């Protein structure tokens, strides 16, 4: 693994000596929270401008995020992607973007699953946790007034039984009363068969359909676009980015990423607070 240093990522030194990045179209997958924006949701001018420049250069730049659709669209607009694709809900939803489409996008793939087995098992181990579910129509159902910016819409409070009967694209579990260690222990005890899941920075769990990750959705798009594997780039910071960083020809972890995320990457850039994504993006120009 190569760690990018201050001298290798500053200013014009971001540009690589070889011309492989300028001669061929790249597929560039960008995580949002902790990568393009900080934990307050702020995108720095340097990150925004470098992302816009890579888009303008003609590369296939796409957001790949755990956020739901409506929380992803403002980021797509901010970095100037009008044509192309985006991956939401950790791979559960894929968008095609084009200005000629109604609303500027269409959903071209949605992976749904039955959340009931996982919800029942988790509720038994984590009875005080908060639960939210995105259904097949893009609505969010939640318990205990659970709301998060990543939902993109206001969650509708329902009882737990109603959630069990829904068809899900994404399930989120959050605990304020458990430590992350207790949360992880409970998840390991449950097993969560038949789904794909990732644990966040705190006692936060994202659940998707079995086999569905950012990487699985990106691989489908890579085949659709006909881009060779070695021309793929991904930047991320979370445990839900591990598969994506392993998948990419050039996987770059943010400087603040957990050890297991860094271990999955080819390179490490600066943290989100030091515009690490901007350094990588400028190297693609």
Structural commentary:
31% of the residues lie in helices and 23% in strands. Helix 3 (45-56) packs parallel to helix 11 (276-282). The chain is globular and about 55 Å long. The strands form 3 sheets. A 6-stranded parallel sheet has the order 1-15-14-13-2-3. A 6-stranded mixed sheet has the order 9-8-7-10-12-11, with helices on one face. By secondary structure, it is of the alpha/beta class.
Q: How many individual helices?
A: 11
Global geometry: globular
Q: What portion of residues belong to β-strands?
A: 15-25%
**Element order, helices and strands?**
EHHEHEHEEEHEEEHEHEEHEHEHEH
Total DSSP E strands: 15
- Helix vs. strand class: alpha/beta
Instruction: Kindly report the average pLDDT value.
Output: 88
- Which bin fits the share of residues in helices? 25-40%
Largest beta sheet: strand ordering:
1-15-14-13-2-3
Give Rg in angstroms.
19 Å
How far apart are the termini? 22 Å
Residue stretches low in confidence (pLDDT < 50, at least 5 long) are: 5-21
Largest sheet: 6 strands, parallel
């Amino acid at each position: 693994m190569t760690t990018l240093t201050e001298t290798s990522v500053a200013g014009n030194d971001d540009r690589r000596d070889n011309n492989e990045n300028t001669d061929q179209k790249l597929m560039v997958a960008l995580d949002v929270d902790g990568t393009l924006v900080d934990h307050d949701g702020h995108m720095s001018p340097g990150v925004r401008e470098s992302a816009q420049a890579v888009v303008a250069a003609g590369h296939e730049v796409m957001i790949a995020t755990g956020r739901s659709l409506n929380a992803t669209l403002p980021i797509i607009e901010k970095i100037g992607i009008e044509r192309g694709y985006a991956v939401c809900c950790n791979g559960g939803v894929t968008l095609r973007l084009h200005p000629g489409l109604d609303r500027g996008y269409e959903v071209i793939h949605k992976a749904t699953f039955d959340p009931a087995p996982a919800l029942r098992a988790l509720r038994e181990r984590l009875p005080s946790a908060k639960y939210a579910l995105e259904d097949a129509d893009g609505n969010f159902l939640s318990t205990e007034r659970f709301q998060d910016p990543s939902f993109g819409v206001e969650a509708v409070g329902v009882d737990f039984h109603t959630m069990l009967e829904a068809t899900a694209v994404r399930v989120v579990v959050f605990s304020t009363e458990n430590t992350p260690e207790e949360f992880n222990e409970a998840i390991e005890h449950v097993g969560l068969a038949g789904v794909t899941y990732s644990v966040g920075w705190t006692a936060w769990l994202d659940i998707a359909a079995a086999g569905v990750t950012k990487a699985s959705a990106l691989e489908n798009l890579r085949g659709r676009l006909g881009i060779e594997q070695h021309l793929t780039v991904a930047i991320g910071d979370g445990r839900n980015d591990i598969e994506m960083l392993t998948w990419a020809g050039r996987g770059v972890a943010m400087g603040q990423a957990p050890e297991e995320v860094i271990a999955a990457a080819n390179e490490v850039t600066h943290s989100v607070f030091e515009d690490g994504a901007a350094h990588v993006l400028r190297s693609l120009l």
